[in-house]
Amino acid sequence: MCKFASFIAKRNGDVLWFPGVDGHYQILELAGIDDSTDRVAREPAKVEITPPKRGRRAVLLDWDLRVDEETQPMWWEDGLHGAACYAALARLIKAEAKGFEIILPDTSYIVGKRERGVWVGVHEEVRSDGGWCRESSLDGKRHGKAVDVWADGSSATVMYRHGRQHGFEEEIEPDGSWARHLYCDGGYVRTTYSS
Q: pTM surpassing 0.70?
């Protein structure tokens, strides 16, 4: 059973959707794609992103993404295909006026809440290259955990307190190597590397 919102994801990172259409087979038909392709390759993949129980006003990356296939395609990468689906969801919500504050510069988007010109609470950005970031703010300054994931699969997690780095910053490369930097009130303390 197809639910809001349904997408067709392609191996190259393209995501297909149509406003008002919540059925995978309708999307395939409208896009002129024959779904009788090799199901072992699972190209294209059917994807659903549904709102969490607290409703459609939840933070966008808290929505549940599910690949609606018997098995997840071998080519699927959350950092590329998952992020592209979330970006498509933001465009779909904007097209259907679903109640989120979404800014769409070029093909990137930002989801969050602004009061008096500053971000409050959690806000997110999915970039056109497939990378994404999520951070929280307090009084217009970064506060709490910030996560940044790039299209190549590398990532960084940084802790902030009132706009200054405080605690660990962890960087992970696509090969699994990592570096952990320690900061105290914005000042660098030390770095540990994976062996």
A: no
